[in-house]
C-alpha cells in the first residue's frame, strides 16, 4: 500500500514553510516541476504575504498563482484563538489580526486561514475551558465577515488541540452555539499521532469538519523532526488506508518545516521524494 493515494481525485499541495521568502514565480516553478497543484502560504513579516499588505498586492499574488494553475489552499497564520483578551477587548490583538487576515485571504484568493488554539488549559473537563470560550467569542466576531468574504477558518490539530478528540469537542460546541460558523479542521496528522492517536481514531473524530490534511514524516513521536516521506516512524500507510477507506477526496499538503529546521534538504528534494513515493 505504500504511496497509494486515497483515490484518483486527491490533490497535493505544499506549505511555503519549506521555502520561506520564495517569490511567486519560484513557487510556481517548484509546483510545476513536481506536479503539485496547491499552496499553503505562510503569512509573516518575513514573507511576501503579511498583515497590512496593500490589497492590490494581495490581488497580484492571486492573479500570478491562478495563472500558474495553483490553488491557495490556506493562508497559514499564527493567530491564537484561546489567548487572553487585551484589557480593552475592542483593541484585542488576536481579534484584530483575525479580521485583517480574513480580508487578506479574500484578496489573495485563498479558501481560508489556518489558526491555532493554543489553550493554556492542558487538562480540560467535559465543558469548554476559559480559553475555548475566548476562541468562541473571537469566531463569533468574524462569522459575518467570513460569510460575506467566502473565507473559512481552519483550526489546526496542534499544541493544546493536537488530538482529534479534543478538537472535535470544540467544533461540536461551536456547532451548537454558533450555527453556520466558518470553522473547519486542518489535520496535522503527525501531531495527532505523536499525542497518542492512531490515524483512524483522529479521522473518525474530525471527519465532519475536515478541510484538508497536512502530511509529513518524522523521526519519532518523541522526536518530531521532519524526515523524507517514508523514511520516518509516522505510520503514513495507515493514514492513506484510512483516507482511502472513507473515500476522502480533499487536499494533502506536505509540511516540510525547513524554516524551523534549516539543516533539512531543500523543499525541491522533499517534493521530488513525495512524487517518487506516490508512484511507488
From TrEMBL:
One of its GO terms (molecular function) is isomerase activity. Keywords: Isomerase. Transmembrane segments: none annotated. Residues 30-271 form the Xylose isomerase-like TIM barrel domain. This is Sugar phosphate isomerase/epimerase. It comes from Phytoactinopolyspora alkaliphila.
Amino acid at each position: 500500500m505504500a504511496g497509494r493515494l486515497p483515490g484518483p481525485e486527491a490533490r497535493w499541495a505544499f506549505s511555503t514553510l519549506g521555502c520561506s521568502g520564495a517569490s511567486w514565480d519560484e513557487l510556481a516553478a517548484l509546483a510545476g516541476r513536481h506536479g503539485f497543484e496547491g499552496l499553503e502560504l505562510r503569512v509573516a513579516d518575513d514573507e511576501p504575504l503579511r498583515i497590512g499588505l496593500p490589497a492590490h498586492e494581495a490581488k497580484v499574488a492571486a492573479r500570478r498563482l491562478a495563472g500558474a494553475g495553483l490553488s491557495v489552499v490556506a493562508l497559514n497564520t499564527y493567530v491564537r484563538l484561546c489567548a487572553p483578551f487585551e484589557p480593552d477587548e475592542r483593541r484585542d490583538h488576536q481579534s484584530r489580526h483575525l479580521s485583517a487576515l480574513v480580508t487578506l485571504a479574500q484578496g489573495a484568493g485563498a479558501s481560508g486561514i489556518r489558526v491555532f488554539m493554543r489553550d493554556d488549559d492542558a487538562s480540560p473537563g467535559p465543558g469548554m475551558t476559559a480559553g475555548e470560550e475566548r476562541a468562541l467569542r473571537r469566531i463569533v466576531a468574524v462569522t459575518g465577515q467570513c460569510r460575506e468574504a467566502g473565507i473559512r477558518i481552519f483550526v489546526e490539530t496542534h499544541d493544546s488541540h493536537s488530538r482529534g478528540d479534543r478538537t472535535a469537542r470544540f467544533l461540536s460546541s461551536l456547532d451548537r452555539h454558533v450555527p453556520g460558523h466558518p470553522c473547519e479542521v486542518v489535520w496535522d496528522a503527525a501531531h495527532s499521532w505523536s499525542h497518542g492517536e492512531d490515524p483512524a481514531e483522529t479521522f473518525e473524530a474530525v471527519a465532519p469538519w475536515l478541510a484538508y490534511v497536512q502530511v509529513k514524516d518524522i523521526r519519532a513521536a518523541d522526536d518530531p523532526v521532519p524526515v523524507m516521506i517514508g523514511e520516518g516512524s509516522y505510520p503514513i500507510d495507515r493514514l492513506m488506508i484510512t483516507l482511502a477507506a472513507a473515500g476522502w477526496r480533499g487536499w494533502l499538503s506536505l509540511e516540510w518545516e525547513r524554516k524551523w529546521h534549516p539543516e533539512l534538504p531543500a523543499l525541491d528534494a522533499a517534493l521530488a521524494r513525495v512524487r517518487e513515493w506516490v508512484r511507488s
